[in-house]
Design brief:
Layout lengths: L2 E10 L3 H10 L10 E11 L3 E10 L2 H8 L2 H8 L13 E6 L4
Antiparallel strand pairs: 1-3, 1-4, 2-3
Length: 102
């Protein structure tokens, strides 16, 4: 069953381009991972203090996603992420979904 992993990020108003640049220039290990299907970075609505972004990764199965989270490639991808002071308004919020209809 296909699995979608999403993380929501609240990014300080006015710093959206910085956040997008971090993602555009980070080393991604996803394409070589078994079960990886696709990745998108989504920009959502803006409020008074932040703009909502979401990373959207499609996996062939929940097991493939869980294998990714235990991999060395995952540690490398997440260990060096630049966290500029004041850029993120709180930690990312993870949401995982099993696809029931396509």
């Amino acid at each position: 069953m296909t699995f979608i992993a999403m993380n929501r990020f609240r990014i300080a108003k006015g710093r959206e381009a910085e956040f997008e640049d971090i993602w555009a220039n980070r080393e991604s290990n996803l394409p070589g991972m078994p079960g990886f299907v696709s990745f998108k970075l989504l920009r959502g609505p803006s409020g008074d203090e932040h703009t909502l972004f979401a990373s959207h990764v499609v996996w062939e199965s929940r097991q493939h996603f869980e294998d990714w989270t235990r991999s060395e490639a995952f540690r490398k991808s997440h260990g060096g992420t630049a966290r500029s002071a004041g850029l993120y308004l709180g930690p990312p919020q993870f949401e995982g979904f099993d696809v029931v209809l396509e």
